[in-house]
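Q: Predict the bound structure with magnesium ion.
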Amino acid sequence: MDKHSPVSELKHIGEQRTKRLQRMGIETVEDLLEHYPREYKDRSSIVMVSALEENEEQTFIAKVKGEGQNGRHGRLTYTRLRVYDETGEVTLVWYNQPYMKTALKVGEAYLFTGKLSRKYGRREVISPEYEKIGEDFAGGRIVPVYPLSEGISQKMMRGFLAEALEAVRGTLSEELPLWLRKEYALAERNFAVQNIHFPMTEEAFYDARRRLVFEEFFLLQTALFRLRNTLLSQGSGIVMKKKKALEEFQAYLPFALTSAQKKVLEEIREDMTKGKIMNRLVQGDVGSGKTAVAMAAAYWTIQNGYQAVIMAPTEVLAEQHAQSFREIFAPLGIRVAYLSGSQKAKEKRLSLAEIAEGRAQMIVGTHAVIQKGVDYHKLGLVITDEQHRFGVRQRGMLAQKGENPHVLVMTATPIPRTLALILYGDLDISIIDELPPGRKAIDTLAVTTAYRKRIYAFLQKQVKEGRQAYVICPMIEENEKLEVENVLEYSQMLAAELPQCRVACVHGKMKAAEKQEIMAAFAAGHTDVLVSTTVIEVGINVPNATVMLIENAERFGLAQLHQLRGRVGRGAEQSYCILVSDADGKIARQRLKAMTKTGDGFVISEMDLKLRGPGEFFGTRQHGLPEMKIANLYRDTEILKEAQKGAAALLKKDPELSLEEHLPLKEKMEQWFRGKSLEL
Ligand code: ADP
Ligand code: MG
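A: Predicted complex:
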């Protein structure tokens, strides 16, 4: 047996268990070995029976006094068993496991772990975990706690892992080259795998974990650096002239740029005059004015005789961009062409012709702008808005449409800098860290559904004063039909509750044209309240909207809540964000409370990471980051930095990974990314 063997070859894994493991994505021994513990329990300190304290998980060694007794409480059967050590006795209780009556041998000693409770003065430990103390017992230890799925218990999983480890002991090959392991003091692979599951000591655990985290980051970084090198080797970039055009353009805007916007423009100016291809990410909170920066860069490009294109992730947003670009560009004699998937054929043909002949200098659209059949006349600048919706590959496709056009990527997802370095490892980063003047902070409240009447009264009042409101119903995962029903039902209910308000509703299943119409009506003030799912979250700009009401707020990530909140507070009036949730978990409450405390997207994203862990924050779908098996993007930043250095050193030594000592690594990397779509 080796690591590639199917798990069914292990003694205790039969057909049914094989299926159950398969459902968890575990098929081979190697998959099993990479099923890392979620946490650990320290059973290395052992408590005497008389010293057991209430409500705290503790480990003790005790002998079984006599056979267990089964009984019944209504529908519940229970088993009681007395155990003892030299200091006292305690009762163990299991429910609905009648076999526990004889599962433990009378007179034998076991290691138990559980919480003591007191009932009518009796000391009981309910459903303790137990483990026989064999001859090789060397005191309690640190035990792993695994993510499980139905039909597989913690005890089983530990057993599988112990068996798998035994089967491959000492045979796992080392992929990290020796020089790297030496330089970064990384534990050897066999040791690491053994000790991540069953650590001999605390120190062994830390060494094991550090090695595995390093490896995971290292593979990712190496892949990213290689991608970046491919992008960089694309040749030299267009050198833009007429630097004054950038200055001059600012006079055409209805406002003065903030100093943060100017600073970013300065960085762009430098990039586009250096003779290299710009690959820059502009990060800025919602409402920080990224569009104006994009416009300035586009204007400059156009003054140099090139075309500029901006690609937005949704039709709504693309349409809105088209409108704002036209507003500013049309009076300057710059032609703006629009492209989208749902466009009428004739209109599209016209746009395509304009683009190909160079009559249109500015192109705005959705994914349609990178499709086959779109030929640019002379493309100089590619802008993508809301980057997290696009993959590198798409960005690359867009870049290939011209001869080395510059690339500007804009995102409102505030990501701590260290993380941005991984997510966008192939880009330079600019940050707009200032909002335009005169913005009022949005009043954010977290309430329970008990406040519903008051909330609706408040909505009514705002509408009476001429304002508008958004209401967000949660998305129903993987069931669009239910989701539509949900939104429809809710808006009907709301219309009945608020007879004086004009309630409209929009959802993801609607035709683009219909969606467009409803959004336009809302933007024009023909409707008062817009009910929707998050599908339409991105980018819409209605300054008269002052209320954002979010139902089941606990289901959203903080970063997402922040994005939604950014839809209001765009005008002169005071705006409000109301988070409705009945979740009573401590973390859930803390998260919503955090939203009420700060409006700073960066603070919020850090908090989100702390409270939820990056697994959720970086849902693979949302951010395109490969899921990490063991590394924690937030807590392991120190190791991440080392891994980055290591990856850079590796590629300097051996850019193609063709040296003998790097072949296992290359293979591992290919295997690692197989099945993962590297949509970074
Ligand atoms: P985002 O960064 O979220 O894309 P936008 O570019 O849509 O933000 O800008 C949000 C709003 O702020 C728009 O209405 C825009 O006209 C306005 N705006 C942008 N920059 C400034 C500025 N320097 N001064 C005043 N208003 C600005
Ligand atoms: Mg925007």
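A: The first strand starts at residue 39 and ends at 42.
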